[in-house]
Amino acid sequence: MTKNKKISLVITDMDKTLLDNDSKISKKNISSILKLKGNNIKFAIATGRSRRSLCNFMDKYQLMDKIDYIISMNGVNIYDAKSGETYDFGYVDEKIINDIYHSYKDYDVSFAVHEGNCLICNKKTTYTDIECEVNGCVANEVSDFTEVINKKYPKLMLIGKECIVDEINSKLTDSNSKKFNFFKSYDYFLEIVKKDVSKGNALVKLCELKGIDISNVMAIGDNLNDLDMIKNSGFGVAVENAHEELKKYAYFITKSNSENGFAYACDKLIDFPINENIPEVSMK
C-alpha cells in the first residue's frame, strides 16, 4: 500500500482503539502521536467521553498539548484545544428522553444522563459502574427519572446487558421517525443524541471550520458510533477488533487495539521521514 504525503489530520476514537484492553495508551501509540506532531500533522480525538474526563485522562500522559481538536460526547461538541473555541451541535430534547424512557422502562436497563461530574440514573448496576469509571464520574440514583429530566441533555444512555441493549436498538431501528440519532458505543451502551449528531458529522463540521480537506483525514475507530467518521474521512481505518460492519467501509484494517493498531496504521499509511528520534512520554 502506497504511503500518503497528504494526510494532514489523524483523528482517533479512544476506547478499544487508541487504548489497549487495560484502558492505557501504549508507548508505541504515544510515540506515534509525537511523530505526528513532529511532522506538523494535526492530532484529534473523537470520543463518547465528556471533554472534562478526556482532558483529565490525557493529562496523565502529558499529551494534552499534543491534541489539536476534541470531538466529545459522540459528536455533540467540537473543541479547538489550541484556541479554546467550541462548537455545539445541540442537546437531545427532554421530551424525547422521557418518551424513550416510558417506551422501554420495563426493560432491564438503566437510563442515564450526564450532568457535570454526575451520572444521573434510575438505577445503579455493574454496567453504570463501567460508565462512571470511564468518565471519572459518580452515579446519582434517582427514584423518579422523569421528574429529574426537565431540560435538554447531551445524550441519553441505555445501559445494560448486551442482549437487552441489542433488542432495544433493533426496536428503535424499526420505529425511529428520525427525531433523534442513536447508536451503540460499547457492548453495554446504547446512546440517544440529537438528530444529525454523530462523530462523522462533527468531523465534517470541524474540517469546514478549520479549512481542512476531509479527503486528507485519517480516522480510526472500532464501533458503530465511529461508522460515519470512517465513511466521511479520506482514510477510514478500522482496528482488527472493530465491529464487522465498520470493517466493510474501512480503507484499511489495522492491527487490534491490544497490538498497537493506532501506531501500525500511522506507520503504514503516513509517509514519515526515516530515522526520526522521538522522545518517550511517561505518566505523571
Write a structural description.
The chain is of the alpha/beta class and 284 residues long. The chain has 2 domains: 9-89 and 197-269, Rossmann fold; 94-194, Hypothetical Protein, Haloacid Dehalogenase-like Hydrolase, Chain: A, domain 2 (2-Layer Sandwich), CATH 3.30.1240.10. Helix content is 34%, strand content 23%. The protein has 11 helices and 14 strands. The strands form 2 sheets. The protein has an 8-stranded mixed sheet. Strand 3 and strand 4 (77-80) form a beta hairpin. Helix 2 runs parallel beside helix 11. It is globular and about 60 Å long.
Mean pLDDT: 92
- What is the CATH H-level superfamily of the largest domain? HAD superfamily/HAD-like
Number of domains: 2
CATH fold-level label of the largest domain = Rossmann fold
Percentage beta strand: 15-25%
The chain-level structural class is alpha/beta
What is the strand tally?
14
CATH architectural type of the largest domain: 3-Layer(aba) Sandwich
CATH class of the largest domain: Alpha Beta
Radius of gyration: 19 Å
Q: Unreliable segments (pLDDT under 50, ≥5 consecutive)? A: 280-284
Distance, first to last CA: 38 Å
As a percent range, the share of helical residues equals 25-40%
Please, how many helices? 11
How is the biggest beta sheet arranged? 8 strands, mixed
Please identify the oligomeric state: single chain
Shape: globular
Order of strands across the widest beta sheet?
5-4-3-2-1-12-13-14
Please trace the helix and strand order, writing H or E for each element.
Answer: EHHEHEEEHEEHEHEHEEHEHEHEH
